[in-house]
Amino acid sequence: MIVGIPFFIEWISDSIIFNDKKGSFDSWLSFLGSYIGGIASGITTLLGIYIGIQYEKSNQKKHAAIANREDVKALYDWCFSVKIISENIESDFSKVDNEQNNNINKKARELEVKISKVDYEWYQKLSALRKKYSDATWNIKCQKGDEKEFRDIIKNLDNFVKELSKYI
Fold first, then answer.
1. What is the pLDDT of residues 38-55, one digit of tens each?
2. Which residue of 39, 86, 94, 116 has the smallest Cβ count within 10 Å?
3. Phi and psi for 106 in degrees, rounded to 5?
4. What is the pLDDT of residues 79-121, one digit of tens each?
5. Among residues 86, 59, 91, which one has the least CA distance to residue 167?
């Protein structure tokens, strides 16, 4: 695209646009150059700011995870254990245990409070996973559930565990 700009400007200079205009071609060329340069520098600035913000977010998450290593490890352990339980339930719906579900929800709520101080994105993922798990087990109790719900939970837990493993 950048290579084509001089050809584009030459085409414009030879076109009808400049035939009846006041001012010389050099003046118009100078105007176009400053205009195009302003746009390019604005885009470059926005890109630089975006990259800087993303880097700072990542760095902040890393430092928060290090400072709260025990909470991140507890979240990792919770995700891993719920993944195993979900895999067991997926293969046999009779393995849904009310007491176990209550403990999972209770532990998730405790972790939500702690993790919200570490990273808001993790907090949102944990809350969504807790709700999906709770809804899926409730649907099984009401005989409306299927394996697809647990496959989705397992996939989400896998991705979350991979992300968390970078920080523990």
1. 999 999 999 999 999 999
2. 94
3. -65, -45
4. 988 888 888 887 777 777 888 888 888 999 999 999 988 889 9
5. 59
The whole-angstrom separation of Cα 140 and Cα 47 is 48
The helix/strand/coil state of 119 is coil
For 94-103, the CB contacts below 8 A with 24+ separation are: 96/137, 96/140, 96/141, 101/133, 101/134, 101/137
Q: Read off the tokens for 96.
A: 């849904």
Residues 6+ apart with CB under 8 A from 58: none
Domain boundaries, the chain: 2-14+22-57, 69-165
Q: Which two tokens stand for residue 99?
A: 């007491």
Q: Give backbone dihedrals phi and psi of 64, rounded to 5 degrees, phi first.
A: -65, -40
Residue 80 to residues 88, 104, 122, 128, 165: CA-CA distances in angstroms? Answer: 13, 12, 15, 16, 11
